[in-house]
Amino acid sequence: MKSTGIIGTAKNTGKTTTLNWLMKRQGSERVAVTGIGYDGEERDNITGLPKPRLRFEPGAIVATSEKCLAASEAGCEIITGTGIITALGEIIVARITRPGLVVIAGPNRAADLKIVMNYIEHTGTETLLVDGSLNRMSPMYLMDEIIFATGGARSRDIVQLASEMKYAEQLFRFSLNSLRPDKLYEVKSLYSSEDACGIPPNERSLYISSFFSDKALYHLMQMKETDDLVFDSPLQILIACGLEGAEIFLSAAEQSGVRVSYMHRPELRMVTVNPFYPVEKDYRYSGGWLDRSELLNRMKATLSVEVRDVAGES
Questions:
Q1: What is the C-alpha to C-alpha distance for residues 133 and 255, in angstroms, rounded to an integer?
Q2: With contact defined as beta carbons under 8 Å apart, do 161 and 151 qualify?
């Protein structure tokens, strides 16, 4: 089973549209969908603007909470419970029997996502799509591949959008770790300069095993001679540094001469772009649009991975 995580860089950047496009392209009988946490509201809870919904056809597999399943308009056949309890009830694996909309509320933790993935794999599904966002992407290191959905709702500056994704793409190019575990010193806490100073001076190959502060990491790079920095995945760096900080991380790593590698490295498969952005006037929101062709062409010229405007193709 191939697993793909779809990560929105901000609200309204086209993540749900990308998911619907992928489901249609894969074919309902071969696809399963879950999410990191909750998604699927009819309207944006800030702007009040309508949002695209996830529509499923018969044969598709979903893993979502009991309450979300009960509230969905699609008909379904329950395959199994997972034993994972959320605020919206147990996460259930079900097969769609009647077409319609489904609200997705999946696991929040990597350990629970592993359990859900195991249940889904036993259904014979060929492709798993996992709905996520920048603030819900920690478990996404489990994915085989990642798709970023970005666009005007993140920034109206097309050059900035392309630049951000260029440096994010570069993060995914570092190799998998090849060092034996006994050659690595595990850094379990890196939130302050004191944590950095507490690392033994003779340890030159470090495994950053948990969340970290970008400031503490840069302090470590400046004050300590280090040969290797091993992270769980490129997503761990993006969580700490943000998309806007990827360039700074890459520059700091190059200047320090450290080798960066990962325990897990999902492939960056694609970036989708959405020219839409919300416009506020007198406490009311409406829609605005970047130049669709300029956004798509700039992103294609900047990135090596595939770039699609899936809304424009629909």
A1: 30
A2: yes
| % of the chain beyond a pLDDT of 90 | 84
Strand partners, 34: 130
pTM of the model: 0.94
229, two tokens:
């920095």
- In three-state secondary structure terms, 150 is strand
Q: Using DSSP, state whether 248 is helix, strand or coil.
A: helix
User: Where is 111: in which H helix or E strand?
Assistant: helix 110-121
Specify the 3-state DSSP secondary structure of 132. Answer: strand
Strand positions, DSSP E, the chain: 2-8, 31-35, 38-39, 55-56, 61-65, 75-86, 89-98, 100-101, 104-105, 127-133, 145-151, 175-176, 185-187, 205-208, 228-231, 259-262, 267-274, 276-281, 284-289, 306-308
Q: What is the pLDDT of residue 214?
A: 96
Give the C-alpha separation, 101 to 41, whole Å: 11
Q: Which stretch of DSSP H or E encloses residue 293?
A: helix 292-302
Residues whose CB is less than 8 angstroms from the CB of residue 194 and which lie 6 or more positions away in sequence, other chains included: none
Query: What SS3 class is residue 135?
Result: helix
List of domains in the chain: 2-171+266-308 (3.40.50), 176-262 (no CATH)
Q: Which of 194, 149, 156, 165 is nearest to 22 (CA)?
A: 149
Between the alpha carbon of residue 43 and those of residues 47, 100, 136, 273, the distances in Å are 8, 17, 19, 20
3-state secondary structure of 30: helix
Q: What 3-state class would DSSP assign to 109?
A: coil
Q: Which amino acid type is present at position 279?
A: V
Q: State how far the alpha carbon of 50 is from the alpha carbons of 16, 43, 56, 134, 258, in Å.
A: 12, 4, 19, 21, 47
Out of 41-55, 103-117, 205-219, pick the least confident: 41-55
The Cα–Cα gap between 161 and 205 comes to: 34
User: Which residue(s) pair with 32 in the sheet?
Assistant: 61, 128
